Amino acid sequence: MKAVALIQHLPIDHPEALLDLDMPKPEPGARDLLVSVRAVSVNPVDTKVRAAGQTREDPPRVLGFDASGVVEAVGEEVSLFRPGDEVYYAGDITRPGSNAEFQLVDERIVGRKPASLSFAQAAALPLTAITAYEAFFDRLKIDRDGADAGQSLLIIGASGGVGSIGIQLAKQAGLKVIATASRALTIDWVRELGADHVVNHREPLVEQVRALGLRFVDHIAVFNDMHHWDEAVELIRPQGGIVTIDETHLPTAMDKMKTKAASLHWEFMFARAMFQTPDMIEQHHLLNHIAEQIDAGHLRTTLTDVRSPINAHNLRAAHRAVESETLHGKIVLSDFA
């Protein structure tokens, strides 16, 4: 099968950072789906894994943590899907990724592709939708169905992939969303997605949020990095919660978190698959929920750029675009030539 893989961890401008290879077609295990991949998305995790490490990969490592496609075959214990089903998923960081014609993925972390979306539109969603959903509803314990309507949520880094679907999920839950964005393009984007207020994360946040008439906010999601930690701590309400998706080596003073009895939550959407948690199937359920909401017209794809075909040249360009940190929404590659 065709695949794009790395043999050595290299900067993206190196011509061998990602390579077109021919690799063996895998065989499904007991709960695996063998998926014929039709479209993939590129996320910051792709670029981080590609750039990290000094050793050579043997066998070559296939990246890719977003995909949509068609079930080709199933393992003997599979009960949720059958061959021919159209699916979408983010996969498992400990297994070969989606940048290949065929991929194995555990059925418990796969959802049915939204019927109203193309494969490219669907591939933009899984990793970011799972991340935002788990961050809000599993970590911060916001009620998905509106019991917390009217509460405020500050999303720092709102125009990226996670923020783009996160704004929509938060609005569906009835929250008042304050989104950060710094360019005219991204400001328009987050407003289009439903943000109630927009503040500039390149300027002091505390003053901007308080100018909206809010001394504190109920919830804060940090979807870029932890450079705004001190401001987040200042803005979170007593007994409120902050969720972040990025590890950090920056100082993260906790004294004011203690005096506010506020909580810090880490979101890592691969945790359930990596550790085979008892509730691993929740990702199947939440992806199906997202698909239902999209098909009902309540949510929309966050695709902003699609390129074809899926090959090393186009994936290197996509990695380069993600590393530029100027994207809004999601970049997708579709179809193998």
UniProtKB/TrEMBL annotation:
The keyword Transit peptide does not apply. Keywords: Cytoplasm, Metal-binding, NADP, Oxidoreductase, RNA-binding, Zinc. It holds the Pfam family ADH_zinc_N_2. One of its GO terms (cellular component) is cytoplasm. CDD domains: AL_MDR. GO terms for molecular function: oxidoreductase activity; RNA binding; zinc ion binding. Its main location: cytoplasm. PANTHER family: QUINONE OXIDOREDUCTASE. Belongs to the zinc-containing alcohol dehydrogenase family. Quinone oxidoreductase subfamily. This is Zinc-type alcohol dehydrogenase-like protein. It comes from Oceanococcus atlanticus. The lineage of its organism: Bacteria, Pseudomonadati, Pseudomonadota, Gammaproteobacteria, Chromatiales.
